[in-house]
Write a structure and sequence with these properties.
Helix content: 40-55%
Shape: globular
Distance between the termini: 27 Å
Strand content: 5-15%
Radius of gyration: 17 Å
Order of helices and strands: EHEHEHEHEHEH
């Protein structure tokens, strides 16, 4: 299983103690399950836009997040897996939008169990796919891919679906982990899925 994407209750930056406790308990259950089935990590977002009340976007909140991630990361390490931070675009998340920022939080959390990822669709926030992945460095644990306009199968948005810049960075880094689809399709999946795989293979060669 390439990764477990969320599934927990609450959120880590909740101001409501009960919501935070729900996050802690459910997240730890999922982390334990991920380790038991051999999944490389559990993907999480610090807070979506609609999750309130949320701690303010301050330096103190960042410190708090790093401290909480250290605890989760150490637990994940004990379980044989990781916690993976996913940056999102600003329409979904104000708190964490850039891969480089996620990597810096991983660094400051000071746990080998805390990693980050990049999602080609959300990475419309980045000025460079290449720079984003290079900035992630040793903390890059997973990658999501989708078409870059409507979040469908790669190729369904035509010339927008160019992943070569990011792939070049992944090649240079020696990235050897998973790239998974996180998308739907507007067409017949028996046609669009093989076409997407072929597109990614051809661009990987080009990179």
């Amino acid at each position: 299983l390439s990764a477990i994407c969320a599934g927990f209750d609450g959120f880590i930056l909740a101001e409501d103690p009960e919501v935070k406790a729900a996050f802690d308990n459910s997240m730890r259950e999922i982390i334990a399950a991920a380790g038991a089935i051999g999944s490389p990590g559990v993907i999480m977002v610090p807070a979506f836009n609609g999750q309130k009340p949320c701690k303010p976007h301050t330096f103190e909140t960042r410190q708090y997040l790093c401290e909480e991630l250290f605890k989760l990361g150490e637990y994940a390490k004990e379980c044989g897996t990781t916690v993976i931070l996913e940056p999102l675009n600003r329409r979904e998340c104000f708190y964490l939008r850039l891969v480089g920022d996620a990597a810096a939080i991983c660094r400051d959390a000071q746990s080998e169990g805390v990693k980050c990822m990049g999602d080609f669709w959300h990475m419309q926030e980045e000025t460079s796919d290449y720079a984003a992945f290079i900035a992630a460095g040793q903390y890059l644990q997973h990658v999501h891919v989708a078409s870059r306009g409507n979040r469908k199968m790669p190729g369904e948005d035509g010339t927008l679906d160019n992943y070569v810049d990011g792939m070049r960075a992944l090649k240079q880094m020696g990235y050897d982990k998973y790239v998974s689809f996180e998308c739907g399709t507007n067409g017949d999946r028996n046609v669009t899925v093989p076409a997407a795989v072929e597109l990614l293979r051809s661009q990987w060669k080009l990179a």
